Amino acid sequence: MTRSFTSYPITDFNRIKQQMLNWADQFNICCFLDNHNYNISPHTYECILAVGADHLLEASAADAFQQLKNFSDQHTDWLFGHFGYDLKNEIEKLHSKNPDRIKFNDLLFFVPSVVIRLEKDKIAIGSHSMNSDSIFRNIQEIPIASRRESLSRSIQIQSKFTKQEYLDTIEKLKEHIHRGDCYEINFCQEFFAENVSIDPLTVYSHLVNLSPNPFSGYYKWNDRYLLCASPERYLKKTGRQLLSQPIKGTSERDEDVKADELNRTALSESVKERTENVMIVDLVRNDLSRVCKEGSVGVSELFGIYAFPQVYQMISTITGEMDESIHWVDAVRNTFPMGSMTGAPKKRVMQLIDEYERTRRGIFSGALGYITPEKDFDFNVVIRSIMYNRPAQYLSFQAGSAITYYSNPQVEYDECLLKVEAIKKVLTRSEGQHA
Fold it and tell me: How confident is the model at residue 155 (pLDDT cuts 50, 70, 90)?
């Protein structure tokens, strides 16, 4: 059954967006994706929201991709959900020994009860079983009253590594590079807090107000939450075209205009950052060549510098024409996990990641997004994100950087702290502040 959309004019985009989020939070499952007015091409939707599950698939690494193929073929409709990093165990026959206290499943996709697309001047609502007029009225009636954040400055953010342990680990990884085991590895550390009670929607609102990024998302599955402020696209399919935009290369922003421009120029001209970036570009080209027509894979932008609230990022764009015989699920399977979050060669560095990291990545460095009824899709890279397990009162966020032959451990440590700066600011807001 085809899902039809009914459009309604709006006059206050920001108000409706917040009302949509507040309305969605009453459901046990919701996925809200927000572009935050960025013009990173190609642009599809400014905001899109899915709530409720008419049909749902949860799967663990074993035959998860085959289950998703069957689920997708069965439902010619919108699908929303995530790929967890540990699907690597199915793809490369690996394992994960580290603990996971957030506990999202390796793969989850659902056919929403309601899909809502929001643009600057209109909202479009599509549902098989609910009346669009009633949904729009209900959203408009949701108050914008502040939601108190049950979080205080006393929150104790801890790390799985002391600074010295982190520096020592980077030296060990560089030894692997020296021996030829790999030539780039994305190494991450977890920051966490225990016995924490938060209002996830309020924290998400604070996070994206401070750090609005083009692949942000609020994702809720029962009592598990992903509060995502990602700047990175993993993979997009439009017709037969596949497009990936890996990020490798980071420099901080500065309030002083001249200093800020110097930081931008330094990133653009950095031999180290360009080396890291081109390594991942080559890896992505190789991944795409497994599912694309011969000779169709190319780099449309190399070493692009993009400005975000806290950082400059170096982004490259790789495209290819997907072979007609390839199922869309196999386009993901053959390129996942994304090279920007692993390194190269991919299988070996994933083994090293599991050996030297101390937390199972789970949904972190996985992908969140949607598939259209036409089987087009768009997925982000889950970074710059807070994960929260409400029953366990456990909050987690991770950050990493690309380790190469030229890496300076102190610089890599500082880069991790830069990437989590916005999250730490959000989590140390005082009790009594409001969204």
Answer: confident
